[in-house]
Amino acid sequence: MIKLYEIVPELNKEESRNVSIFLNRTNAHKERKDVALFDYVRKNKENIKDSILLEKLYGNKSDKNTFYRLKNRLLNDINKSLLFLHFNKSDYNTVLNLISLSKLFFSKNNYIISYKYLVQAEQKAIKNEFFDLLDLIYSDLIKLSHESVDYNPIEYIEKRKQNHIKLHALQEIDDLLAALMYRIKVSQNYGSDNVQFTTLFQKTIDEFLQNPEIQKSAKLQFKIYHSISRILLQRRDYFSLEEYLKLTFKDFTKREMFNKSNHDTKLQMLTYLVNALFKNNKTKESLKQSELLYKAMQEHNSVLYNKYLFYYYNGLVINYQVTDKNKAIEVLLEAKTKPEIQQLSFYTVFVYLNLAVLYFDTQSFKNAKTNLAKLKMSDSYSKMDDAFRLKVSIVDLITIYELGDIDLFDYQLNILNKDFKTLLADKAFKREVDFITILTKMDEMDKSKLSTLVKKFNSNHQAVTSSENDIINYQEWLQNKVK
């Protein structure tokens, strides 16, 4: 159930101002309790208690029922205000509202006006390829034939059939894409169970590409782009991804396919390109692309600026980690202050993990340990994939080793073995087991014996790409210890 105290803190300045105007549109005076309630919640976003508000609004009168009705009425007015403010802020919203208006006049038995709203909605939905909304529109147009012989349903029945073909293709690819995106996101690409799923996805995409309806539809071409890019990302084929992104972005731009309704996809393509270029060791080009991303974020009145600010900072951080670690730390500390990034669920993972790695790389091990502790204590960390959390725990263990805290090292080692007992028994994590084994015995060996173990480790796991698998490169760190 949506609650008043959850909604109000999410309102931006424009929305809050519009709510205030909406509340005061009639009978404006200083004693309005709904206005007082809204202002209090807006200014005191945390630790709001009903008991305090009840006392503030009603004094000694313990009128809880009246207070709860006031809260519900205010929430209802906020909902109306938001709908009014955002009525035509996107083409999708516009079509939805036209459908709603049509339904309103249908309920009034005014079928002529109802029909005109639906035709207007159909035109805008076709232009933007809103196949899901077209399904609703054609269903309502067919319903009109039940009420009047003036509306022939045959045309709209055929249109609905043709739309179903596109909608089905869109929904099927959406389902597969959503599942793949979720797996990639929670694993942070450290998992190993997505190969079979990706193969199935590739086969499905190949079949869709032969569909003439898809070849004609810009929206479905965007969906195909999403699918192919995700497949290449999952396969870690960054050279193919870079080439595909450059060609596709150039093609979509030349054909003027980008607009406000698919601006999200444009920014995503630029973000992927930043990351692919980085993976391909093209840091200068990746940083240049990051600035192009930032410029694009300001298009269409910066409608998606907040959403992509994180990705912009991430593009800077990953590149400066290679070229200028102190600059990367500076960027992260700046990003840490941004409210747009602080509100993200994975904010702590992004900030604290990267700061920990950068401080580790610059041999500031106490700072690295502090940021790792903050990361592991966060709510979002517990929701991450087990493989990713194992990698973090290993980094924590290495950091403690560098600090020379033997007691803490033994304590954390026991926790690691206990928490990841099942994972460490899996053959897929043999490399992690071998590394931990070397790490726990390092102080008992001279450099000659350690060098032999490191060579054996490198030989046994030479097929693994360390930069892809490790948060901190195991081979590189071990090699430094035997110099």
Would you mind describing this structure in some detail?
The chain has 483 residues and is mostly helical. It has helices at residues 4-7, 13-23, 33-43, 50-58, 64-85, 91-107, 111-128, 131-147, 153-187, 195-208, 212-216, 218-234, 238-254, 263-279, 283-297, 299-302, 305-323, 325-335, 339-342, 347-361, 365-377, 379-382, 386-403, 406-419, 421-424, 430-441, 447-460, 466-469, 474-481. Helix 15 packs antiparallel against helix 17 and helix 26 runs antiparallel to helix 27. The N and C termini lie far apart (61 Å).
SS field, number of helical segments:
29
> Averaging pLDDT over every residue, what do you get?
85
State the low-pLDDT regions, or none: 188-194
Structural class computed from helices and strand pairing: mainly alpha
Instruction: Give the overall silhouette.
Output: globular
**Relative strand content:** under 5%
Task: Kindly provide the radius of gyration, computed on alpha-carbon positions and rounded to a whole number of angstroms.
Answer: 28 Å
Major sheet: size, sense and barrel closure? none
**Can you count the beta strands?**
0
User: N-to-C SSE series?
Assistant: HHHHHHHHHHHHHHHHHHHHHHHHHHHHH
Number of domains: 5
Summarize it:
With 483 residues, the protein is mainly alpha-helical.
